[in-house]
Design a protein that fits this description.
Blueprint: H1 2-5, E1 8-9, E2 13-17, H2 23-30, H3 33-36, H4 46-57, E3 60-61, E4 68-75, E5 80-90, E6 95-102, H5 111-124, E7 131-137, H6 141-150, E8 153-164, E9 167-177
Helix pairs in contact: 2-4
C-alpha cells in the first residue's frame, strides 16, 4: 500500500523513493562535514554511498520488511534538497521513528519543514502510525528546532549516552501523536 502513495507533491516539493541516479547527490551531501557531524557514521565515500543507496532502494513500505520508507525531497526543478526516513520501531503497535537530512546549500528555505510535515500527515493518516519519535544529537540545534516546529514534544535528554566519533554525546528524544500535528497551512 505504501508504494501507491508516493510520489507525493507539496506546494514546492516532491517526496519520492530513491533511484540509482541519486548516488551522486547522496555522496555530495553526506560527504560534507556539517552533515556527517551529527550522524552516527563518518562522512560517506563512494563505496559507502553505494551500500547505503542499495538499502534505501528497498525501503518502500511500512507494511513488509524492512518496515521503512526512505524518501528523496526534491524541489520543483527535481533538484535533491534533502531526504526523509520513516521506519517502524514496533511493527505490531505501529510505533515509528523519523529522520531527516538537508543539503546545507538549501538551509533556511523551509524545505524540510514542508516535507517532514507532509510525511507526518501521511504517517498518521493512510500509513496508520500511532506514534512517531525523533532522536538526535543534542548539539544539533537546527534539527531540534525543526522537531519543535513540526509539533514534537521533547520527552527526554539523555546525558552522554552515546560514544560517537571519539566523544560522549547527549541525545534529545522527541515524540508526537496525531493530536500534536499543527493544523495544515492553507497556503
Amino acid at each position: 500500500m505504501n508504494d501507491a502513495i508516493f510520489p507525493v507533491y507539496t506546494r514546492r516539493l516532491e517526496l519520492r523513493f530513491h533511484v540509482a541516479e541519486d548516488a551522486a547527490d547522496l555522496l555530495r551531501v553526506y560527504s560534507q562535514e556539517p552533515v556527517a557531524r551529527y550522524l552516527l557514521e563518518e562522512r560517506w565515500d563512494e563505496e559507502y554511498t553505494q551500500e547505503q543507496l542499495a538499502k534505501r532502494l528497498l525501503r518502500t513500505t511500512l507494511d513488509a520488511e524492512p518496515h521503512a520508507l526512505s524518501l528523496v525531497v526534491a524541489d520543483a526543478s527535481g533538484r535533491y534538497v534533502g531526504d526523509l526516513a520513516l521506519w517502524l520501531t514496533d511493527v505490531e503497535h505501529r510505533q515509528a521513528e523519523i529522520g531527516w537530512v538537508r543539503d546545507p546549500q538549501c538551509a533556511g528555505l523551509g524545505y524540510l519543514d514542508e516535507a517532514a510535515s507532509e510525511l507526518l500527515r501521511l504517517a498518521f493518516g493512510p500509513l496508520r502510525v500511532h506514534r512517531v519519535a525523533a532522536q538526535m544529537d543534542a548539539r544539533n540545534t537546527a534539527s531540534a528546532a525543526l522537531a519543535e516546529r513540526l509539533g514534537f514534544r521533547r520527552e527526554g535528554h539523555l546525558i552522554q549516552d552515546l560514544f560517537s566519533k571519539g566523544e560522549y554525546t547527549d541525545t534529545f528524544i522527541y515524540g508526537m501523536l496525531a493530536r500534536d500535528l499543527p493544523a495544515k497551512d492553507p497556503a
